[in-house]
Amino acid sequence: MTAFQRTLCLALVVAVIGILSLAEPAASDRLKVKVQEFTLANGLKILLVEEPKAPVVTVQIWYKVGSRNEVMGRAGLSHMLEHMMFKGTPKFGKGEFDDKEFQLEREVVKEERRLRVEDVPPSYLVEQMYAQAFMVHPYHWPIIGWFNDLNAMNREDLKAYYEKYYAPNNATLVIVGDVKAETALPMIKQYFEGIPKGSPPRTPAIVEPEQKGERRIIVKREAQLPFIYFGYKVPNFKSPDVYALAVLENILSAGKSSRLYEALVYRKKLALQVGAGYNELAADPELFTFYALVQPKAKVEDVEKAVLVEIERLKKEPPSDHELQKAKNHVEARTLFEQDSVFRQAMLLGTAETVGAGWQYIVDYVDKLHSVTKEDVQRVAGKYLNADTRTVGILIPVPASARARPVAGGAQ
Fold first, then answer.
1. Which of 31, 65, 246, 278 has the fewest CB atoms lying closer than 10 Å?
2. Distances in Å between the alpha carbon of 228 and those of 199, 232, 293, 341, 391?
3. Measuring CA to CA, how many Å separate 399 from each of 116, 296, 396?
């Protein structure tokens, strides 16, 4: 365990024990996040929210690093470091890990990959689809890494990666709960300000080339049912269109009264599950995705066509006033209920700050959402959900006897 890790653990314990109060929960008919921002001399940013409604507090530290900072051939470094953070003990000094411990933990990560990806056909398809959708950008590889990269990874790779990115001036400390800034700040300075800052890490400048036509990938695996997963290139938080895209996602896939569920599950009985997904809080532009688990005896091509029909429908005519208001209400309620949890509130603030959106994005989200019109929803559907930026993945089940045996070591 490094000095920074030991300091963090001690600070968390002291923070939880020392600055909790026993105030009664504060009543509020509408959540309104009030963030206080501070920066220490070593560059560590602090976001603090005084929320006395319950005698609890959450303390999180976020580093501005992830798979997009990795390089080809070493995918999975960030995830591997997450595992190694729990391997240190007071016996080891700064940066010291036995190589034996690294080897053992790497096998744990490989087994995690087998359980969560290799043995779950839909997850395997999702991974393969992303590898086709992003040809240059690091979103091409999975967060957990490929088997070949994990096999090639060594202790020196982790040490160099850690020293490059895991420094106070590349981190944000988020504290939300029954805490007072005047009590917490002196403690934070005491335990964190003495940690030396590192060299400012360079922000990755990799830009995915424009996609100029639909891409398709077929995966044949032992599975019970066919599965479809496809996505369109869409902007992230930097675009004002994100609010309309969030409403569009809700209209298409939120609950059993959504357009996709009503059409494919209820009416046409083509799918057992269907939905869409969009996360604008990514450091770089990502995908607006759709998925469908094909009903037994239904044809994959019919399911795909039915999803596309619903997309085209929104392009041709805007949603009704009722649909729009229902979707906006749902998104707003979900956002506010998330913030009712001090843990989730800290997660949202930490995520926004880490990807570059800034914590103000979370505070302003609901107000910006209110301005979305039904014409906006129709416009973004027409602007972004187009075949030329679409990547389609299809899982075709095969009998167990027809599946090729995996190579020893799990090579791709």
1. 31
2. 44, 14, 7, 34, 11
3. 21, 15, 10
**Residues paired with residue 37 on neighbouring β-strands, in sequence order:** 47
> Can you tell me the mean pLDDT for 377-384?
97
Say whether 199 sits in a helix, a strand or coil.
coil
Average pLDDT on 17-42 reads 58
| Contact residues for 38 (Cβ-Cβ < 8 A; gap 6+) | 45, 46, 48, 185, 188
CB 205 within 8 A of CB 123: no
Name all domains of the chain by residue range, CATH numbers in brackets. Answer: 3-192 (3.30.830.10), 215-402 (3.30.830.10)
Calpha distance 282→231 (Å, rounded): 15
Per-residue confidence band for 27, with pLDDT thresholds at 50, 70 and 90: very low
Question: Which residues in 93-132 are b (16+ Cβ under 10 Å) and which e?
Answer: eeeebeeeebeebbeebbeebeeebbeebbbbbbbbbbbe
- Position 5 confidence tier, pLDDT thresholds 50, 70, 90: very low
